[in-house]
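User: For a reading group we're discussing how well predicted structures match intuition. Take Response regulator transcription factor. Before you show the prediction, I'll give you the sequence so everyone sees exactly what went in.
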Amino acid sequence: MVDDHPIVLSGIGAMIDGQVDMTIVGLAANADEALETIGKALPDVAVIDISLPGVNGVMLIERLLERYPSLKCIALTAHEDPGCLRQVLAAGGRGFVVKRSTTTDLLQAIRCVLAGDNYVDPALAARILSPRSSVQGDAGNLSERERSVIQLVAFGYSNKEISSRLNLSIKTIETYRTRATDKLELHSRAAIVRFAQSVGWLAELQ
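Assistant: Thanks. Here is the predicted 3D structure of Response regulator transcription factor, as C-alpha cells, for the group to look at:
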C-alpha cells in the first residue's frame, strides 16, 4: 500500500489486512520507499495513490512494472478523470479505484486483478462507457445458482474461487456464468459489476 497520508495508509492497510484472504506485507509513503519495500516483500498486488510527492503514482507504476512485470498495480485516487484512468492503464495498471468509493470496491478490485482481470471503479466506468441502447436483462430470469455465480463474479472472485465457495466444478461454474451473462446481455466484467451494483447485489455481500 502506497499513500502519502498516514491516516489513509494505516486505515486502508488495516482494512485489507483484516481480510482472511489478504495480508499487507508493506506500507510506503512515497515512490522511493515503495520501490525499496516492494523489492524486499515482492507482493502480488500494489495499491498506489496517484498523487504522491515527487514521483507520482503513474510514473511509479511504470518503474515497478519494469522491474517486476508480474506485479499487479491498482491506482487509488481522488481524481475521477477519464484522462487519469487512461494514463494508469497505459502505464500498465490493472485497476483504478476512486477514493470516495466504499472499502468494498477496493477489496473487489484487489480480488479482480488477482483473478487476472482489469478493474475500473463503477463510479468512473458508468461515465466513460456508453450505455446500452437495448433494455438490459431481468435478474428475475436467473436461476438461484446463476444469480449466485454472477454475484460472486461481480464481487471479483475467479471461477476457481467460486467453485470452491459453492462446492461445484469449475466447468459447472463456467456454464452458469455463461447462461447468466447471456440472459442479462452482459459481455464484460465491468458490465457485470455495474449491473450488480444497480440491483443491490454488491451490498448483499458486504
